[in-house]
Amino acid sequence: MKTEYTIRLEQKKDYRATEELTREAFYNVYRPGCLEHYVLHRFRNGKDFIPSLDFVMEKDGKIIGHIMYAKSRISADDGREIPVVTFGPVSILPSYQNKGYGTALIEFSMQRAKESGAKAIAITGNFGFYRRFGFKVAKTAGIRYFDDPDAEYFLIAELEKGFLNGVSGTYKDPEEYFVDETEAEEFDKTFPEKERR
């Protein structure tokens, strides 16, 4: 991977461009069309969105990558609410995928999250990919995904070593991740038409 790229905070004027980028990155990957660009759109005004951990990656004068973070929490079995953060969607333009840009963006943002005071990150994702960033399958640490306690795709990483020692509980994503598919379809109509398959 050539290193001529920059990572900076996203600005409001970038919002549509990053929604288009996210749509390109996820279209027809997990389903016909995608929902991820609408998830991103909803987060902008959500209570959990963290503007100081909302980054774009630029190369050759255009935005090629994006990652955003949100506040979330583990409902511990002892009654405590344990504050953590989550990220996603992580988007890289298809023509730049599998070249290390996503890894660079995730590493950069995780370091910034740590510097901001975040103690742990919980995500859903592919363990085979995310283990390189220090993630482990959360259920092995006693932390369960709210509607799938045995989920292998629910992952957690400590940014402060030992932060989750002795913590067991349940995690649920911020509400902005749960979208109305009809609303998502209407939002998608505001973008150039693409073939669903």
Write the layout of secondary structure elements.
Blueprint: E1 6-9, H1 15-26, H2 36-43, E2 49-59, E3 62-76, E4 81-92, H3 101-115, E5 120-124, H4 127-130, E6 136-137, E7 143-145, E8 154-158, E9 169-171, H5 181-188
Parallel strand pairs: 7-9
Antiparallel strand pairs: 1-2, 2-3, 3-4, 3-9, 5-8, 6-8
Structural class: alpha+beta
Please report the first level of CATH classification, the CATH class: Alpha Beta
Low-confidence stretches: none
Write down the overall geometry: globular
What count of domains describes the coordinates?
1
Q: Between the first and last Cα atoms, what is the distance in angstroms? A: 31 Å
Number of DSSP helical runs: 5
Beta-strand fraction estimate: 25-35%
What does this structure look like?
It is built from 5 helices and 9 strands, in the order E-H-H-E-E-E-H-E-H-E-E-E-E-H. The chain is α+β, with helices and mostly antiparallel strands. The protein has a single domain (6-188), classed as Aminopeptidase (3-Layer(aba) Sandwich), CATH 3.40.630.30. Strands 1, 2, 3, 4, 7 and 9 form a 6-stranded mixed beta sheet that branches. A 3-stranded antiparallel beta sheet has the order 5-8-6, with no helix packed on it. A hairpin with a 2-residue loop joins strand 2 (49-59) and strand 3. Helix 1 (15-26) runs antiparallel to helix 2 (36-43). The radius of gyration is 17 Å and the shape is globular.
